[in-house]
């Protein structure tokens, strides 16, 4: 378990939500729960995504609607202004991205690695059987 405060850069498409770019896919299970817990523990989250313009604003709004407000978006700190004469690489301690070698770990594994303890419980889905109307 990591106990220090981290700056964590997180991709959007294929990482927080299923990759449906330029549309917004369904949230990946435990992504928002884990991100909320990281913020509760004092970690700074940066949205680091290929999206720009209105597609980027839609992603930021979607995350806000799901309880995540990022420290910065596509930059190392909120006041940073993009300068094409400098590298776009941002400063972060950890990057969470579906393009990692080996792919994206499950958000349960990410939770355990960064926060420790048990991952959030999977929500129970009530299945309706053929004769569920009799109950």
From TrEMBL:
Keyword Hydrolase (UniProt): yes
Q: Which GO terms describe its molecular function?
A: hydrolase activity
Is-annotated flag, keyword Ubl conjugation?
no
Keywords annotated in UniProt: Hydrolase
Q: What is this protein called?
A: Hydrolase
């Amino acid at each position: 378990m990591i106990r220090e405060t981290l700056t964590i850069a997180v991709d959007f498409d294929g990482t927080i939500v299923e990759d449906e770019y330029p549309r917004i896919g369904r949230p990946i299970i435990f992504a928002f729960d884990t991100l909320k817990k990281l913020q509760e523990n004092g970690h700074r989250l940066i949205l680091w995504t290929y999206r720009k313009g209105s597609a980027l604003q839609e992603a930021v709004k979607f995350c806000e609607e799901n309880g995540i407000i990022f420290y910065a978006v596509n930059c190392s700190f909120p006041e940073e202004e993009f300068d094409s004469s400098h590298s776009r690489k941002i400063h972060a301690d950890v990057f969470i991205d579906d393009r990692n070698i080996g792919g994206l770990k499950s958000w349960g594994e990410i939770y355990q690695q960064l926060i420790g303890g048990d991952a959030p419980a999977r929500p129970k889905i009530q299945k309706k059987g053929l004769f569920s109307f009799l109950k």
